[in-house]
Design goal:
- This protein is mainly alpha-helical and about 300 residues long.
- The chain is about 70% helix and about 5% strand.
- The protein has 11 helices and 4 strands.
- The protein has a two-stranded antiparallel sheet.
- Helix 1 runs antiparallel to helix 6 and helix 10 crosses helix 11.
- The radius of gyration is 23 Å and the shape is globular.
Length: about 300
């Protein structure tokens, strides 16, 4: 059942981000070129398939994307989301190579950074698109985040209110019914508001100014469609609260030290800590198995004939 919910969530995520990109380039005011979008998607698709083929041959299993067109589409949903997210959120002027680099890092991180789980399998712990974006921002100082105004640049009047409300409504329904990450969202937003209040008390920053990012479309996209990735966030509600609050704490620390693009770097830091924790838990499970006392031999009673 959980697997079905995740697939349903991926399909709706993919549809939503596709509609947003089409609308963004058609009339909202996206400033990236269509060539960057197509380069990002083609890189994401090809690299996802290539890594799957290599892994299938190494471990001798049948790749699931060769079972038909529908299986291929479902298989490519995560890479589709990653490709569109990178092309939408990064701004590299008219250059295409930084976008290709970001997508390559994003897709590659799923194959490289994998933590062991309780059932014996392994799963990536970095949000792919966020990791690719953060790495690119860190390595290339001339690459930036797409200007937040591009999401509402060509809207007028009540349109500035309708679009954010659509994101909030659809994002809330999606995360409440399918990803089940509402505790994480509430903890993240509540922690964000709390850090703004704390900065007001200790550093004199105006609380309203600290809360201002919440009103932006970019913040809503990060809140409802990036930080809630079901594949790289905890499933238990209490763990979700810790994850969301941890991202808010990391963001506030980065902000105090004047680190730009704090949202993306904060999520990378918390995902790193979570991955390290998964490795520690796996090591403890192995150690507990090794330290189990040997079973006592069963006594055999021989009866004399």
């Amino acid at each position: 059942m959980i697997k079905d919910l995740r697939l349903a969530a991926l399909r709706r995520f993919a549809i939503a981000i596709t509609i947003l990109n089409i609308a963004g380039h058609a009339f909202l005011g996206f400033e990236q070129s269509l060539a960057q979008v197509f380069a990002s998607l083609s890189t994401a698709y090809s690299l996802e398939i290539l890594l799957a083929v290599v892994d299938a041959r190494a471990n001798r299993y049948r790749p699931r994307f060769i079972d038909g067109p529908r299986a291929l589409i479902d298989f490519l949903l995560p890479s589709h989301i990653t490709g569109l997210a990178v092309a939408m959120l990064l701004y590299a002027n008219e250059r295409i190579l930084p976008i290709i680099f970001a997508v390559t890092v994003a897709i590659g991180s799923k194959a490289i950074f994998r933590a062991p789980l309780r059932n014996g399998s392994k799963r990536h712990f970095f949000n792919p698109s966020n990791f690719g974006i953060a790495t690119t921002l860190l390595l290339f100082s001339w690459v930036s985040i797409a200007p937040p105004y591009q999401f509402t640049e060509n809207l007028r009047g009540i349109g500035h209110w309708i679009l954010p409300c659509v994101f909030i409504l659809t994002g809330s329904l999606l995360n409440a019914r399918l990803t089940r990450r509402m505790p994480l969202i509430l903890a993240w937003v509540g922690g964000f508001a709390l850090q703004a209040l704390i900065r007001n008390l200790f550093f004199g920053t105006f609380w309203i100014a600290g809360l201002a990012p919440i009103t932006g479309v970019a913040f809503l996209l990060f809140t409802f469609y990036m930080i809630t990735d079901p594949g790289t966030t905890p499933a238990k509600p209490l763990n979700q609260v810790a994850f969301g609050a941890g991202v808010a704490l990391a963001y506030s620390i980065l902000l105090v030290f004047h680190v730009a693009f704090g949202l993306f770097f904060a999520l990378v830091l918390v995902c790193t800590l979570r991955g390290f924790g998964l490795y520690v838990l796996a090591a403890r499970r192995v150690q507990s198995v090794i330290e189990l006392p040997p079973a006592e031999p069963t006594a055999v009673v021989l009866r004399e004939a």
